[in-house]
Amino acid sequence: MTVNGPDAKSGRARSGGAGWVLVLNSGSSSVKYQLIDMADGSRQAAGLVERIGERTSRLVHTGHGGDGRRPQRRETEEPFPDHTAALKAVAAELAADGMGLDSPRLAAIGHRVVHGGTRFTDPALIDDEVLAEIERLVPLAPLHNPANLTGIRTALALRPALPQVAVFDTAFHATMPEHAWRYAVDTATADRHRIRRYGFHGTSHAFVSRRTAGLLGRDIGEVNVIVLHLGNGASAAAVAGGRCVETSMGLTPLEGLVMGTRSGDIDPAVVFHLARVAGMTTGEIDELLNKRSGLAGLCGDNDMREIRRRIEAGGPDGERARLAFDIYIHRLRKYIGAYAVVLGRVDAIAFTAGVGENDPQVRRAAVAGLDQTIGAALDTERNAESSTRARLISPEYARVAVAVVPTDEELEIAAQTYELVTR
Ligand SMILES: Nc1ncnc2c1ncn2[C@@H]1O[C@H](COP(=O)(O)OP(=O)(O)O)[C@@H](O)[C@H]1O
Ligand SMILES: CC(=O)OP(=O)(O)O
Ligand SMILES: [Mg+2]
Predict the structure, then answer these.
(1) What pLDDT score does 143 carry?
(2) Quick one: average pLDDT of 60-73?
(3) Are 4-168 and 218-409 equal in CATH topology?
(4) Total Cβ atoms within 10 A of residue 42
(5) Each residue of 114-148: pLDDT tens digit?
(6) Which sequence spans correspond to the domains of the chain?
(7) CATH architecture for residues 218-409
(8) Closest CA to 352 of 405, 284, 409
(9) Between the chain's N and C termini, which has fewer beta carbons within 10 Å?
(10) Which of 143, 198, 200, 259 maximizes ligand 2 atoms within 8 Å of its Cβ, making it the mutation to test the pocket?
(11) φ and ψ of 113, to 5 deg
(12) What is the pLDDT of residues 360-375, one digit of tens each?
């Protein structure tokens, strides 16, 4: 396959050998990255920097120099004070493998940007104006957009002429109808302050709903899917014929499901009560609901593996973990029920992300008894199989299929980036 690289200034295609896309996913304390060859989707390098800003940051890099040598894994423990330092170290790792940011094969850098507001319903080629708009959206995603911006600025400083593309978590949800995205709050106030439901994890919901249609051997335009993205952050989406019609996250990634450290849905009056009765500041309440709630707030652990281990060990500690698990599952089932009604007809329920892909007990509890209501059922053996393949885990007779689909946000971001710069 011949690939056309982008012209650095205009972002338009020109002939040449450039066919790699570097994807950067900058989180609040981490950077994940992948270097993908768009000719065949193969990973040339991948890695993760964790605990940025703490005393013991760690960089794990895997790459093989792009010449098909056996992949090599390198691990560095070094304190990275901020994202800029972390990204410079990532650039150095890539350069050591002969795949640095100056490589002529690099066609573009794709960035995950969490909040795109109402403006960005498609990927955007980054320029000063796009940067300013992402900056303007910081108050709507204070945990995510600043890290995304640092990632973009550092990459621009290292390779100013290379096209860089922002791919937004919110974009896929732009098709929600107004009755789904509008909160029942005074319209003038809501509009003035851009208060509405935006939805997140859209890159994952788009990728997984398409893959699920593929598993069913049907066109995405004719299937209705409920996607359950259960990672540290978690959200559900109702996708009708490839278009999102409803999702569980709202103005920010705090609404909806019970997550690792976020509460998901609560009565908004809890906030006033904490301010009036407990004397907490808005900053303290924000921190409570985003970082000290969810599974962590309920039982002290946000990792589902640890929660399962505690439940199996039993005792009072296991009881606390069991209650956290039950609350998590109860919320998830409420959303499955609601989205089945919103969609009218469901063809499949798809589980994805860290918990959804790896935890058969969560899947079993989420779907238990649904053959009696919406017609979804699990095949016990298929559900228990440990595999990294996308696969159906329901019996043939089930009216509603159940799927496990490993999400690949990086590949989706790379594809959208490459599409834009070679268009
Ligand atoms: N084998 C497993 N069994 C159950 N849960 C798992 C397993 N592996 C990972 N997880 C869960 O997945 C979470 C991370 O999911 P991930 O999608 O990588 O999250 P994020 O991208 O939000 O960091 C972990 O916190 C843990 O709860
Ligand atoms: C938007 C969001 O919640 O992202 P993450 O799951 O990566 O925290
Ligand atoms: Mg994730």
Answers:
(1) 79
(2) 77
(3) yes
(4) 12
(5) 999 999 999 999 999 999 999 999 999 887 899 99
(6) 4-168, 218-409
(7) 2-Layer Sandwich (3.30)
(8) 405
(9) N
(10) 200
(11) -120, 125
(12) 999 999 999 999 999 9
